[in-house]
Specification:
By secondary structure, the protein is α/β, with parallel strands linked by helices. It contains 11 helices and 14 strands. It folds into 2 domains: 128 residues, Aspartate Aminotransferase, domain 1 (Alpha-Beta Complex); 254 residues, Aspartate Aminotransferase, domain 2, CATH 3.40.640. A 7-stranded mixed sheet has the order 2-8-7-6-5-3-4, sandwiched between helices. The longest helix is centred in the C-terminal third of the chain and has 24 residues. The structure holds pyridoxal-5'-phosphate.
Length: 407
């Protein structure tokens, strides 16, 4: 019965996205699209604001609820999750909470990371912390053995993205995490590209920190996100910024000052600073319901099966993606063309520019990153999206080749 119910569940999920009626959306790696139920939840918040019909505590129920639902999605205890703004906020929070000693280092693959998970670590130079930069593989994936080999007795942190924003390999977080655990190194994962799309299980994955915004696969808003900090580390992490919710007071009153001799919250609440992005919390509270209804495992299975079909179709028309066709590094992101043959939004590859223009005309929403044409799937995509995309790319390819022959 479940096999029959599944396509129906995905089809009705898809129905809720107005943006999908007019286009094929393959750009969740760039930004989210709004589901009707998420929009309705934000509207509830706006109505309350307009009518002055709720107070801070009423609104903050949605912060707690969104955190608990995210915890459910990633199989972590609710108290390990803090509400934050975005990846930058989360990475900086961990960077400044670590008990550094001068001469310590952090290991990362700069070429594979988003700048927002690089600058927080470069900033630590003022505390005498070295950024130990490991080279990526020639295909842009993480060189896992080299990252592990870079760990020494002064390494405190390793960081990587769960899926690179380009070219889009899924990282072997488990292998990195195991190596880190052996040496008591904190593994921080920038999970914004995988959260809500690929399955996470923090009880099983040997990671110590995870940061994400809700502005991509979690289907929420910009400026609201989650930080996970492992109970193994929490007592060693002291927040750089402090305000009322992060300390134990014996009361929940926002404006009640307690002891000057304060104690941090025993869990990830110690990282929460001041008032929350409440619109973001209302959005996430609803979008996480949608994701939990489908289930993390089913979402990943669906997305990876569409990704494999897209990869196969592109390969069959003579345009094999630069990302793997299968195996553990296959993700929902697929890139075409030579890595770094251009940058953000442009490519010097004579094929990619015209192909991208043709796809835009064909209403296939995509992006160009690091000079590569980038496509990304979520659980709202379906087989027709894959077929349309392959047909459009095939046409665009023929047109671009014809044009280059004429020249
Ligand atoms: C891997 C990765 N990290 C971080 C970000 C953005 O960081 P922030 O959430 O701080 O805006 C992006 C945005 O595209 C990304 O792809």
């Amino acid at each position: 019965m479940q096999a029959e119910a599944e396509p129906h569940a995905f089809a009705s999920f898809r129905e809720g996205f107005p943006a999908l009626r007019a286009q094929t959306y393959l750009s969740i790696c760039d930004k989210t699209i709004l589901h009707d139920r998420v929009r309705a939840s934000i509207n509830v918040f706006l109505d309350h604001l307009a009518m002055a019909s709720a107070n801070r505590k009423d609104h903050e129920v949605h912060v707690a609820s969104a955190k608990a639902k995210f915890a459910g999605l990633v199989n972590a205890p609710a108290e390990t999750i803090a509400a934050i703004r975005n990846v930058s906020d989360g990475a900086n929070t961990i960077a400044w909470a670590m008990p550094w000693r001068e001469g310590d280092n952090v290991v990362l693959t700069v070429e594979a990371e988003h700048p927002n998970n690089i600058y927080p670590w470069l900033r630590l130079k003022t505390r005498g912390v070295e950024c130990r930069m490991v080279a990526a593989r020639s295909d842009g994936g993480l060189d896992i053995p080299a990252m592990i080999a870079a760990i020494d007795g002064r390494t405190r942190v390793m960081t990587c993205s769960s899926v690179t924003f380009a070219p889009g390999h899924r990282s072997d977080v488990a292998r990195l995490g195991e190596a880190c655990r052996k040496r008591d190194v904190f593994l921080l994962v920038d999970g914004v590209q995988s959260a809500g799309i690929l399955r996470h299980d923090f009880d099983a994955e040997p990671i110590d920190g995870f940061v994400t915004s809700t502005s991509k696969g979690l289907l929420g808003l910009y400026g609201f996100g989650f930080l996970y900090a492992s109970p193994r580390w929490i007592d060693r992490l002291e927040p750089a910024y402090l305000s009322r919710p992060a300390v134990i007071q014996g009361t929940d009153d926002h404006s009640a000052m307690g002891n000057f001799d304060f104690e941090f919250q025993p869990d990830s609440r110690r990282f929460e600073v001041g008032s929350f992005n409440l619109a973001g919390a209302y959005a996430a509270d609803a979008s996480l319901d949608l994701l939990l209804e489908l289930g993390a495992e089913r979402i990943e299975k669906r997305v990876l099966s569409l990704a494999a079909a897209l990869h196969e179709g592109l390969t069959a028309i003579g345009l094999p993606p630069a990302t793997p066709a299968g195996g553990p590094e296959l993700s929902h992101i697929m890139t075409i063309g030579k890595l770094d043959a251009g940058g953000h939004g442009f490519s010097n590859d004579p094929l990619i520019g015209p192909l991208s223009a043709h796809m835009t005309d064909g209403k296939i929403v995509h992006t160009i990153r690091r000079g590569q044409l980038r496509l990304a799937l979520h659980a709202y995509n379906n087989e027709q999206d894959v077929e349309r995309t392959i047909a459009c790319v095939s046409e665009g390819l023929a047109k671009a080749r014809q044009a280059s022959e004429v020249k």
